[in-house]
Design brief:
The chain is an alpha+beta fold and 240 residues long. It folds into 2 domains: 129 residues, Electron Transport, Fmn-binding Protein, Chain A (Pnp Oxidase, Chain A); 84 residues, Split barrel-like, CATH 3.20.180.10. It is 25% helix and 37% strand. 31% of the residues are buried.
Length: 240
């Protein structure tokens, strides 16, 4: 299967993967906008538990609402773990309501537990915004590599630059004209995405795995399979 025809995560899968890997988010209501780092957890596909610093007064805003909840949006930004041009890979915006969490203890005394219920899901990927069906989002599974992808890619780029150049030999030769640098951009159950850099811009190419990954260990095996294919490739290009 060629790189262009390679399967990719669905929009719902990509959203679930972004949420699974995210360490930070931006929460916005009519009265507040706060950045939360390491203070959220995904309880269900459309429900998040947020431990919000009490000094933000979000709990007071919620408590003052006659309906017991407040309309809010939550934004996630998916940033490539490897330093590349145009490093933001995707954005996710959830629209819904926040309310005081029922019986959800705060992780610290100065934190207030809030529950967020998502009603709408939007994804920006590849320069386009799409609406994600809530039902598809609810049944989608995060990628098995979502939480380990950053570690694998930074190790690959930092300690195995020769492997990246070797993988580039599997890319259609026509796409390599004028390329000055190749970096790993994404790793998921379906394959590895390389970002090709030229003086005039960038181009992303996906190299598919023979079969979707089951777990991170399977990812190491399939990466080695791609490298073996590259070593056996009769074409050899000049070093960049």
């Amino acid at each position: 299967m060629s790189a262009i025809e390679s399967p990719e995560p669905t929009a719902a899968e990509l959203v679930r993967s972004v949420l699974a890997a995210a360490r930070s988010l931006t929460l916005t209501t009519e009265a507040h906008r706060v950045e939360l780092v390491g203070l959220h957890s995904l309880e269900a596909p459309g429900r998040l538990l947020l431990n919000v610093p009490s000094e933000t007064h979000l709990s007071s805003e919620v408590a003052a609402s006659p309906y017991g909840d407040v309309t809010a949006t939550i934004e996630f930004t998916d940033v490539a773990p490897v330093a590349v041009p145009d490093r933001i890979r995707a954005r996710v915006v959830l629209g819904g309501w926040i309310a005081l969490a029922d019986g959800g203890p705060a992780t610290q005394p100065d934190l207030t537990p809030l529950s967020f219920e998502a009603a709408t899901v939007e994804l920006e990927h590849g320069g386009q915004w799409v609406d994600v069906d809530p039902d598809e989002f609810a049944v989608a599974e995060p990628d098995p590599l979502a939480e380990t992808e950053a570690e694998i890619l930074t190790h690959l780029a930092g300690a195995h630059s020769d492997a990246i150049e070797l993988l580039a030999q599997l890319v259609d030769a026509r796409l390599l004209n004028g390329v000055t640098r190749v970096d790993p951009l994404r790793l998921d159950r379906y394959g590895v995405v390389l970002r090709l850099q030229r003086a005039g811009g960038t181009h992303d190419v996906r190299l598919a795995f023979p079969s979707p990954l089951r777990n991170p260990a399977h990812g190491v095996v399939e990466l080695r399979t791609l490298l073996a294919r590259a070593r056996a490739c009769p074409r050899r290009r000049t070093r960049m």
